[in-house]
Design a protein that fits this description.
Glucose Oxidase, domain 1, two-stranded parallel ribbon, single chain, 215 residues, alpha/beta, 37% helix, elongated, 7 helices
Length: 215
């Protein structure tokens, strides 16, 4: 698992998308408004899913107990993807990011918000979210399920899937084919390097494309 995640980290989202498209696998790209907190930091790895929702009339103490329970569940070597179903609250913050980083989590993606952004950037923990806000989950939001199928922006994500996300966006790779897809992505990137070298050497781009079959 770690080997696959590390190999995937050396790839980029566009190449992964291209391979999946060639396999006629679509609806794999996360919504374009889910953006990295730090454009220079990507993430990749097997997915651990969390599904939650806003609540009314819940006690603040109980929501924090539930939140810390979620943090305690987060497995090392994974990327957490949280379907928060919340347009108002930060579903990641300073202490949570540092906790997850300390537990060996590779990164965090949510369809909700993020707060304490300057601190999270300073510790280098990769977070992708839809917006920033100081409003947190206390008395208002809890997780409902873990390691279940979730859906974000029409993209279905199941436990065992992999994700790669960078400045261009996020792509989900079905877990059952991740090894094959990764091998194809690595081969594609080698071909791209040949095209790049040919163009830098003065070859016409059309000729380079026809020779290598990639552009």
């Amino acid at each position: 698992m770690t080997e696959l995640a590390d190999r995937l980290a050396a790839c980029y989202s566009g190449a992964v998308y291209d391979v999946l498209r060639q396999r006629s696998i679509f609806d794999t790209v996360l919504p374009k408004d889910i953006r990295p907190l730090d454009d220079s930091r990507g993430l990749s790895g097997p997915v651990y899913t969390v599904k939650g929702s806003p609540k009314t009339g819940v006690d603040g103490h109980q929501t924090l107990l539930a939140w810390t329970d979620f943090l305690s569940r987060a497995p090392a070597g994974h990327v957490i993807i949280c379907q928060g179903q919340d347009d108002d609250r930060a579903l990641m913050g300073e202490l949570s990011a540092e906790t997850l980083q300390g537990r060996g989590v590779r990164g965090y993606i949510t369809d909700g918000g993020c707060r304490d952004c300057a601190f999270i950037r300073s510790i280098g923990f990769p977070v992708f979210s839809r917006f920033f806000t100081p409003r947190d989950v206390v008395g208002a939001w809890t997780a409902d399920a873990f390691e279940v199928a979730v859906s974000i922006g029409g993209v279905s994500i199941a436990p065992g899937d992999y994700v790669i996300a960078d400045i261009d966006g996020g792509v989900i790779i079905p877990g059952g084919i991740v090894k094959e897809v990764l091998g194809e992505v690595e081969a594609m990137m080698l071909t791209e390097n040949k095209v790049r070298s040919a163009i830098r050497g003065g070859m016409d781009p059309r000729t380079a494309y026809l020779k290598h079959g990639k552009f």
